[in-house]
Write a structure and sequence with these properties.
Keywords: Transferase
Largest sheet: 7 strands, parallel
Order of helices and strands: EHEEHEHEHHEHEEHEHEHEHEHEEEHHH
InterPro entries: Glyco_trans_4-like_N (IPR028098)
Strand order of the largest sheet: 3-2-1-4-5-6-7
Distance between the termini: 18 Å
Protein name: Glycosyl transferase group 1
CATH superfamily of the largest domain: Glycogen Phosphorylase B
Number of strands: 15
Organism: Desulfotignum phosphitoxidans DSM 13687
Radius of gyration: 22 Å
Helix content: 25-40%
Strand content: 15-25%
Number of helices: 14
CATH architecture of the largest domain: 3-Layer(aba) Sandwich
GO molecular function: glycosyltransferase activity
Length: about 425
C-alpha cells in the first residue's frame, strides 16, 4: 500500500518523532511505499537512510515556510518552540494555510491508499477535511489530549473533524478511554497498540560494578518530568555511592533550573545533553538504574529501552506505566504512587516535601539492591520486553491499516470504488 505519514512536529526524532521514525522503518520492511510530511525546524536535516528525499515534504519553521518557532505538542519542548495556547489568530491562520498547502501537494504527488497522522490535533483535522474519502489512521501520543484541555477554543474547532477519522491508535487502555471522552471516537475503531523499542540500539550486556551505582534519567529537563523532584530527593541521600546521568534538553529556563539544582550534587551528576538512540543505548548498558519521576506520560518508550538494557526501574505509577508494569512482583521495578495533582502535570506544593522523602527512600532501597546484586534478573526482563520490539508493534499497526483499507465506500486515488 501507499501510505502517507504526517506529523506536525518532528524536528529531532525524539518522543513521537522516535515513534514515527520506527513506523517508517518497519513499514518499508513490510513492503509499503511511504511518503512523509513533517513539521521541522529551519535547519533540519533528514536522518540518513530513513526515507527517500523525493518522498518527503517538510514544513520548515524559524523563518522558512513559517516565521516563528515550531509549536510543540507539549508546552515545554527540548528545543525552541511556540506554545499553542499563546498563538494569535494570525499565526494560527498561517500555520493552517501552510500545512494545508503542503498536504495538498503530497496528496497530488503521492496519491496514497492510507493516511497515517500523529496527534489528535490541528493537522489531523486539516487532513480529514482535505481527504475525507481516503482511509485515515491517527496515532495519539497523549500530549495532544493535554492541548485539548489547554486550548479549549481550538479544541472546539477541530473536534468534529477528528471524530470522523476512520481508526485511532491509543498507547494504553487508559488513554483509549480519554480519547473517547475527549474526541467522541467510536470505541470499536479506537485500538490500543503500545509503542515499541528498537532492539538494534537497546540490548543487554552484563552489568559491572566498581562501587558506584549508575543512575540514568533521559528525557526533557523539566518540572513536569519531575527532574527537580528527583534532584532534591537525591540530595537527601547524597551519602550513598551513586552517580546520576542526565540525558536530554529543554527550554532555556527549565534547563537552567534543573542544572542549577544538579550543581548542588556536584560530581554526583553528569550532564550529557541530548543523545542519539545509539548513544543512549550505550549509556543504559553501563547503568544500573533508570529513573522516570514524571508527573505526566502517555506510554514512555524509554522504560522499555532501559529494561531491554537490563536496568532496574524506578518510576511514578502513571496509568500507561501501570498497564505495562504494575502487576509484576519483581525487585527490578519499583513504582511510586502520586497524590492528586493540582493540574494535569503539576503536584501541589504542599505535597512536595513528602514526595521527596518517599522518592529518596525508594532510590536508597534500589541503590542497596544494586550493591548486593549488580546484575538483576535478565530472564524476567526478556519476558517483559519480548512483545514490545518494533517488529511486533508494527504488525499490530499494519492490521489497523488493513481494517482502514477495507472500509466500505473507500474510493482509491485512481477513482475506482472498492466498497463491499
Amino acid at each position: 500500500m501507499r501510505i502517507l505519514h504526517i506529523i506536525s512536529q518532528a524536528p529531532d526524532f525524539t518522543g513521537s518523532g522516535k515513534y514515527i521514525q520506527q513506523v517508517l522503518v518497519q513499514s518499508a520492511k513490510t513492503g509499503h511505499d511511504n511518503f512523509l510530511v513533517a513539521g521541522v525546524q529551519g535547519n533540519f536535516i533528514l536522518p540518513a537512510g530513513l526515507i527517500e528525499d523525493n518522498h518527503c515534504i517538510f514544513i520548515r519553521f524559524d523563518g522558512k515556510d513559517l516565521d516563528f518557532p515550531i509549536p510543540g505538542m507539549s508546552d515545554v519542548m527540548p528545543y525552541e518552540s511556540r506554545v499553542f495556547s499563546h498563538m494569535g489568530s494570525r499565526d494560527l491562520a498561517a500555520y493552517h494555510q501552510v500545512f494545508e498547502t503542503k498536504i495538498r501537494q503530497a496528496l497530488e504527488r503521492f496519491r496514497p491508499d492510507i493516511i497515517h497522522t500523529h496527534h489528535l490535533w490541528i493537522v489531523s483535522a486539516i487532513i480529514r477535511r482535505l481527504a475525507p474519502r481516503i482511509p485515515m489512521v491517527t496515532s495519539c501520543h497523549g500530549t495532544c489530549l493535554r492541548q485539548h484541555v489547554l486550548c479549549p477554543e481550538i479544541s472546539k474547532r477541530v473536534t468534529a473533524d477528528l471524530k470522523q477519522i476512520d481508526h485511532v491508535i491509543a498507547l494504553s487502555q487508559t488513554q483509549k478511554q480519554e480519547i473517547i471522552k475527549t474526541i467522541g471516537t467510536d470505541p470499536t475503531r479506537t485500538h490500543v497498540v503500545s509503542g515499541g523499542y528498537n532492539d538494534a540500539c537497546f540490548f543487554h550486556t552484563p552489568k559491572t560494578f566498581d562501587g558506584v551505582v549508575e543512575l540514568v534519567y533521559a528525557g526533557k529537563l523539566s518540572a513536569a518530568k519531575g527532574v527537580p523532584w528527583l534532584l532534591s530527593s537525591l540530595a537527601k541521600i547524597r551519602h550513598l555511592p551513586f552517580r546520576l546521568h542526565l540525558a536530554g534538553n529543554s527550554s532555556d529556563r527549565e534547563k537552567a533550573r534543573c542544572l542549577e539544582s544538579a550543581g548542588a550534587l556536584k560530581e554526583k551528576v553528569v550532564y550529557h545533553g541530548p543523545l542519539s538512540h545509539d548513544d543512549l543505548g550505550k549509556l543504559l548498558r553501563t547503568a544500573h538504574v533508570f529513573v522516570l519521576p514524571s508527573f505526566y506520560e502517555g506510554l514512555p518508550l524509554v522504560l522499555m529501552e532501559a529494561l531491554a538494557c537490563g536496568c532496574r526501574l524506578v518510576a511514578t505509577a502513571l496509568p500507561g506505566v501501570k498497564e505495562l508494569l504494575e502487576h509484576d512482583d519483581n525487585p527490578m521495578i519499583r513504582l511510586l504512587d502520586l497524590p492528586p495533582l493540582e493540574t494535569i502535570d503539576t503536584p501541589y506544593k504542599s505535597d512536595m516535601p513528602q514526595l521527596a522523602n518517599r522518592l529518596a527512600s525508594v532510590l536508597a532501597q534500589t541503590i542497596q539492591d544494586v550493591q548486593a546484586h549488580p546484575d538483576p534478573d535478565w530472564d524476567y526482563a526478556c519476558t517483559k520486553i519480548f512483545p514490545y520490539t518494533w517488529e511486533k508493534i508494527f504488525s499490530k499497526i499494519d492490521r489497523v491499516y488493513q481494517q482502514a483499507a477495507n472500509r466500505t465506500g473507500y474510493i482509491r486515488p485512481d477513482g475506482d470504488d472498492v466498497s463491499g
